[in-house]
Design brief:
The complex is a heterodimer.
Chain A (H helix, E strand, L loop, with lengths): L5 E9 L6 H4 L19 H4 L22 E4 L11 H9 L3 E4 L4 H8 L4 E4 L2 H11 L6 E5 L4 E3 L5 E3 L4 H9 L3 H6 L2 H14 L4
Parallel strand pairs in A: 1-2, 2-3, 3-4
Antiparallel strand pairs in A: 1-5, 5-6, 6-7
Chain B lengths: L6 H7 L2 E4 L5 E4 L2 E4 L5 H10 L9 E3 L18 H17 L2 E2 L10 H7 L8 E4 L13 E4 L2 H10 L1 E4 L3 E8 L8 H12 L7 E6 L1 H4 L3 H9 L8 E3 L4 H7 L8 H11 L12 E6 L6 E3 L7 E3 L14 H12 L14 E4 L1 H4 L2 H11 L9 E4 L4 H9 L2 H8 L2 E2 L20 E4 L14 E4 L2 H10 L10
Parallel strand pairs in B: 3-4, 3-6, 4-5, 6-7, 9-10, 9-12, 10-11, 15-16, 15-18, 16-17, 18-19
Antiparallel strand pairs in B: 1-2, 2-8, 13-14
Classes of the chains: A alpha/beta, B alpha/beta.
Chain lengths: 201, 468
Amino acid sequence: MQKFSKLTGIAAPMPLVNIDTDMIIPKGFLKTIKRTGLGVHAFDEMRYTLDGTEKPDFVLNKPQYRNAEILVTGDNFGCGSSREHAPWALADFGIKAIVSTSFADIFFNNCFKNGMLPIVLPQEQVDLLMKDAEKGSNARMTVDLEAQEITTSDGVVIPFEIDPFKKHCLLNGLDDIGLTLEKVAAIDAFESQAAQSRPWV
Amino acid sequence: MSAPKTLYDKIWDAHVVSEDADGTCLLYIDRHLVHEVTSPQAFEGLRMAGRKVRAPEKTIAVPDHNVPTTPDREQGIKNEESRIQVEALDKNARDFGINYYPVSDIRQGIVHIVGPEQGWTLPGMTVVCGDSHTATHGAFGSLAHGIGTSEVEHVLATQTLIQKKSKNMKVEITGKLRPGVTAKDITLAVIGKTGTAGGTGHVIEYCGEAIRDLSMEGRMTVCNMAIEGGARAGLIAPDETTFEYIKGRPHAPKGAQFEAALTWWKTLFTDEGAQFDKVVTLKGEEIEPVVTWGTSPEDVLPISGVVPSPEDFRGGKVEAAKRSLDYMGLTPGMKLTDIAIDTVFIGSCTNGRIEDLRAAAEIVKGKKVKDGMRAMVVPGSGLVRLQAEEEGLAQIFIDAGFEWRLAGCSMCLAMNPDQLSPGERCASTSNRNFEGRQGRNGRTHLVSPAMAAAAAITGHLTDVRELM
């Protein structure tokens, strides 16, 4: 898995609340059997007209945000389906960190599996970062996972919380399956015990 | 005497393989359901690492999202990408030796309908699937939730998930429902009250007299939409209704094993005095038939209501409401019953079971679909379809002018050819009214099967109680 440690980049403001997984990657693009190549379709229906032309008003189509690596978003980002195509599309576009007051649980988890960092902050701090993001490409934020801090373009430092295990995996780019397989003896033991206590399973 | 536990606590505790100092657990998974959309990359990952499926006998696959629902599907899937995805599942199921219901099998259907129907889902189990509506299986008192594709691969390889425990939330529906009010109205009314993030970080236990009174089909409808309320899982304690439903199903335990299972299942309830982190209570008598007006499942109103104005909201929801009204082509103050409908869709993992079809058929019987409307019924599985044909429901729908389709997810997410055109407005028994969900620029109003049937007859959103 891709490591994440520290990033300085452009943040794009997306203040709309409840941005759902159908908005992030519409179902037409879920027919792929690959993980890659979805970036061009990220936010497809918000980003392009029916004939495929870019909508100039959409934030990631604006010249100053085309290379955004951070999203600052409204509440409940990523609600809806379990499709990992949503973080795959965002990662393929170049997004590495997302800031919001809240994320849907499954989307939140999926981000970590793909080297992306979702950060939960209180409303006032998201508002402050939203204002900073609105300054455009000259405003670059720094997200430092080791220090658990975001630094705005004018030097305001905002600390954030993160689950220590998820932080560890992200910093070191650890593969979950590899980690779990180290505990295979415990899984074997659980299975033998369950075969006795719940043989019908 | 140990501390009182919730139902969720009990199921969780019975599945912890190991726990780290920071509370991160390895949780054992009893059933892994698989469909064609969220699994190909996971199987590819296994192949690349030279790994096997650890417990193929606990893994069940069925294609549902992409499959056409028209009779010509026997000639193969025309859309190339869809066909490749279904063929990939055929191959993966064969190569890895997992239980499989291919398109040609009468038992094929929506994964969340097939699992319970075949007796794979049992009380006290952990059930996962690369699909957010896995919450459905919570109706049996099993801890069931959606996972991403990386986690699908993790479960295939290890039969476990790395998890931290969620918080406990109780949603109680007291008293009796009034006539014309269904499980769908309950679950939408709850989301209308809590919002789509109200359950985030929680597992919901639904309880109360109105929940107890529901059939298994109704309970599945309620739990199915726990995810629209932000909760990964919804639970209902198993009882006689549950045990009766399970008994005799192909993969349910038999004989002495059933009795042994029953003894354990009967311990699966929340203890007196157990603590919930959040409690929401609704009075069953006060729930009306509801509809959604906007593009979030929290945009719920009683059918007697009017389209709201953005000024009725606060914070970020003001802009969201403006955007929704514009997308939906609605004007504030308009009566919901004045909204004209082009299409009616009855089906999905939310409302594609036999009871749903019975409820819709009861409204439709002897009437005709309004001229110019498109109306379709898509049974949730081949067996639901068969049963509906045997009960005469199919003929009622056909006589009324409905299309009678084969099983699949269909227009719930429109990955197959069943889609809305831009601007087309649909009364749908599915679970999401997101922008573009049923087809780009399509407009969705979520309703119960009976309400969808009523709209098909009148051509506009209708209070079903007027047709009863």
